[in-house]
Amino acid sequence: MACANDNLSNDANTNDINAKNSNVNSSNSKSSPTKNNDKLTQIAWQRSEDGSYSPSSYINRDLSLLQFHLRVLAQAASPRHPLLERLFFLIIFSSNMDEFFEIRVAGIMQKLNLGDVASDPHGMRPSEILNEISAIAHDAIDEQYRILNEDVLPALAERDIRYLKRDELNAEQSAWMKRYFTEQVSPVLTPISIDPAHPFPRLVNKSLNFIATLEGKDAFGRDINLAIVPAPRSLPRVIRLPDALTGGKEHHVMLSAIIHEHIGELFPGMSVTGCHQFRLTRNADLDLADDVDDIAKALEGELENRRFGDKVRLEVTTECPTHISDYLLNEFELHNNQLYRVNGPVNLTRLLFDFNIPELRYQPFNHIVPKPFRREFDKFDRTTSMFAAMRKGDVLVHHPFHAFSPIINLLWQAANDPKVLAIKQTLYRSGTNSEIVQALAAAARNGKEVTAVIELRARFDEASNIAVANFLQEAGAVVVYGIVGYKTHAKLMLIVRREDDRIRRYIHLGTGNYHAANAKVYTDYGLFSADPDISEDVHKIFQELTGMGKPANLKKLLHAPFTLHDKLMDFIDDEITHAKAGKRAHIIVKVNALTERRLISKLYDASQAGVKIELILRSICCLRPQVQGLSENITVRSVIGRFLEHTRIYYFYNNGDERLYCGSADWMDRNLFHRVEVAFPIEDKTLFEQIYEDGLQNYLQDNMQAWTLSGDGSWQQIQPAVGEPPHIAQDYLLKVINHVGEPV
Length: 744
What we know:
The protein is an alpha/beta fold. The protein has three domains: 164-350, polyphosphate kinase like (2-Layer Sandwich); 371-551, Endonuclease Chain A (Endonuclease, Chain A, 2-Layer Sandwich), CATH 3.30.870.10; 559-738, Endonuclease, Chain A. The protein has 20 helices and 28 strands. Helix 4 (83-114) runs antiparallel to helix 5 (126-158) and helix 13 packs parallel to helix 14 (462-475). The longest helix has 33 residues, at 126-158. It is globular and about 85 Å long.
């Protein structure tokens, strides 16, 4: 998911979103700690007999995640963003909300069915959470379509980029649309009448459908008054009109408009009295038992079930009559607060078209290769140049500012190098067309011992990962699926090479997936190293993943579910000890989410001991910062920009003997206790400083794209203080690494 990079603080539209959905007000980047009301302060400070903090000390994770989606939506409201990127933000928001309902809301509904009992750390009952989600989501989706209809589409129309409605077509265009329907659409449509012989069809999750009301008798003399017409998923949702009909302009028509205009042709001899599009969202989470005999086969079966899970949301247009929406709600056994009326297409995720208009998109840039890996580094032995660079010292890449190509090049060099004996790699999200996968297959065909640890259960990439596993197995690679019950989320690559009658290991460790497309829009760190101790640790982790035995005894790496959580708790305890001794104590953490209750409680303890704690969280935060007596030494910020923030960095001052780790794990229960994760230390002083300055301090200085969290759970967008120069973290990195644009 890409994110925008311009300031929204003065936009009226953004303020509307904030006031409506997030209770967000502009704040000054130099402002004092949030003044929480007395009730919040008193409740949050209460502790139970076992020393743990009261439920009200924590923010509900699902409501916090929903607030992140609102911050994404706020980007679409800003006229400072390139216009097509604003459209893309609306599409991102729509996609985010789809997954939110498919996974999070569906999960809460399942809990409600088991009993309306508080089970989350915040102490809210499932019904309370669902009611609050419904209120926020309805307002947010209304605002999404307001931005689309009042801001984005009119601005696109000013540039003659149009999504034409049926009544906006001229005679020639209408004739073309009729031919398109007859030749391209009608042959793949299947109208389904609703009658005793044809019960309401089982509709696929998130599919576009039409409900038509009819009058008259069909070919068999039956009185049919309702029919369902599913829109084929094989057809594009946006169709560009031929240049001959538009003068070469970017004029488009929606598939829904084409079907709606000509739906009467599907029911000859009958009258269509109404036609309304709708979309059903289902539970799309997978339920895979831990005791399955064959995880791949079990997963393939579950993937089919995902298409027809429990119903969680119904979307119709604002023009849909109440009696039709009530009929659909009754058919799907949904309540009125699960109905969403939208003023436009019911699926904005399909609205995107590949416009080739550079001036309406972000400024492109070259993803550069770090100097040690440039070809001229080793002119005389290009096949081993990357190995030579890694022997000289650790090399850091910072995506997307640095290219993903060094990872691919390293694998291809290893695949074709006669000195390489074995390659081992974890794969979480990939595809058979990935160069990573192609290089691994080539290595296996070239006689290398290739082992791929593929996590089949990477959400929504399960089918792709099964295909990757089959492809690599056919090439001769050894494929394992990790540990049942524990997702393999660590990002590891190990290359074993024989050099002068000795074995040397080369490794790559990352914070993000081995996915070239993601590396262009996600911020991630990757470390290339030939460090013997870390390489040995990686070797042991692969043995742990593919074999049996006790947890590996590692020298430098921290890994979940064994040592990572305990070590993080110990590191925080060390800062508490230093603070109590009157010494400087400082923690900076940058992760995607913070939900793990024991870590949050420990951070509360650290705050009360005087430890300065700065958290940079992309999305979920269950910690309440800036509460008097609880967390006044903790600040939380979120940066939403052109790129999706994905780096995970843990920094501890440690009385001057500073610790800095990068890793694959967020500070969530699932990462720390139910996944295989790895955190690696940054020991090279130059790389340490680079990550500390670029990955942490740079983001703490952002006063244009950053939002701060208050103790009551609301977010405020930061503005530069009077006389303070603007600073955009991602733009800064583009300038210092890729030399894009003018200096900040």
